[in-house]
Amino acid sequence: MERKPIKLTTTSYAVLCLLDLAGEATPYELKQMLLNSIEHFWPVPHTTFYDEPARLAKSGYLSEHQEQGGRRRKRYTLTDLGREALRAWTDAPGAPPSQYRDEAMLKVFAGADPETAFAGRIDWHRAQLAELEGYLANLKAGHEGRREDEWRGPETTVLGGIEYHRHMLDIFERFAAAAEREAQVLAAREGAAPAAAIEREPPASG
Question: 3-class DSSP state for residue 62?
Fold first, then answer.
């Protein structure tokens, strides 16, 4: 089959690196691996991710074979070309700087109440933190018998995700504490105003 040249994207490299770790996988198995690893720091649209293995196979970066029985799923493995492309990408120095995008921050900038805009974020970051800590424990438990280069990269990125969610939790918890203090000050002022009015009210004439 003639190889069709394509431009490799970050989604392409996500597929290649997951297959490098898995050895062989179906698109569904790749998606599950994505959800437990790369998705935490590099979200990929699922429809794009499902289509990518076939696109890479047509260009010679993956080999494809179909199961003979059962659900006759397509399974993919890295070719030498795919492995070379992945190594060249990972060995290239640097990467574009990340961009911080947060719609809640944009709402606050536009005048939203921070407590309302950030509702649910503390719970979400706590859930993400717990999930990553569980994933890190599984990685450490699976180190035995594996080469260091097989787990060092995933472990480093999971640790980075843990630090990120800890940092964001600290930010949002401080926002929540500041909002609570402001609410208490406002309540105290509103409570003091009626009391002052009562004190100033002249006594009723007899």
Answer: strand
